[in-house]
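User: Quick sanity check before I run a bigger batch. Here is a single chain. Can you write out its predicted 3D structure?
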Amino acid sequence: MRIYLDHNATTPVDPVAADAMMRSLEHLFGNASSVHYYGQQAKAAIDDARTSVAALVGAEPGEIIFTSGGTEADNFAIRGVAEALEPIGRRHLITSGIEHEAVLNTFKALAKRGWRTTVIPLDATGIISPDRLRDAITDDTALVSMMHANNEIGTIQPIAELATIAHAHGAVFHTDAVQSAGKIAVSVRALGVDLLALSGHKFYGPKGVGALWVKRGVRLAPFMSGGKQERNRRAGTENVPGVIGMGAAAAVALKKMDAEAVRLSALRDRLENGILAAVPNTDVNGLRTSRVPNTTNISFDRIEAESLLIALDLEGVAVSTGSACSSGTLEPSHVLKAMSLSSHRAQNSIRFSLGASNTEEQIDHVISILPRIVTKLRSLSSVATR
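Assistant: Done. Predicted structure follows.
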């Protein structure tokens, strides 16, 4: 039995999206910038996909800019605002310690170029405190970037309140919604944000395509030079099959989202409660109430997470120790460290992220094999430390 519990890293492409992409590869080969029939066919298909992606986040189609993925969307938002507002003296940027590397490393790059940056720490709940943002923000702040749902622990942030604080100081607010769009209801209007990033392969679309929602009137400098695609915002010939696949996946996600959230939440709780009951010295990282329905992050005392990940993989179960973009590093999770958890706990935690293919039978199988695996690894750890 093979069980995939790493949907926050990526999801399999939905058959509807795959079919739409195959049809586009066969019939829509035109360049969407061309004025002839073939080009206009491709352009019309992109516009249809733009409408579907906009509907997923409660936006207008004209506010959606397609990108190569969530990382580019985050870079575009942060660098674009920083460059646009630099001439008026706003050179301060704020984010949190639990952001994706696409945000944190962009902040580091801008700090080397002279921008002043503030990274807000969190407590063990994994929830960003509005009071800490109030203490950090100044009248020089150009941008506040806070993720909607965390990719490792799943916590949902109070984005609407955080955005209100930012706007009171004249700052632009960006949110990375890569892990929330398609899982829970997301409305750019209700959140009150100015920019929102999402990625197709997180909701059963293809890899290599994402989008940035930009509120009308937001000053944003393009960070790529080239042609006039995407309303002069993002140069480069459009990835027509990828965009079509993302649009098809967005339409499916919007239709299934409410029912799937209920189903996944029940499965996640079944897994979580089963592990906590069957395996001693385990605990859930982050607040258990305000989070996306498919994610749990559990610490296993006296075990290295990498060892447990490999042992589970040998049993046919795919999990992760955190962000796929950080795989291969021996460093403890920067998310858990930002929550002031101990280095040991940050190194003994496993993320389980569920998705469309998971069943009660699979969840019960994982619960049944974990006690044996954990007991063996703990015994080996005890021998090694003698």
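Residues 3-10+257-384 form a domain with the Aspartate Aminotransferase, domain 1 fold (CATH 3.90.1150.10).

User: Great, the batch can go ahead then.
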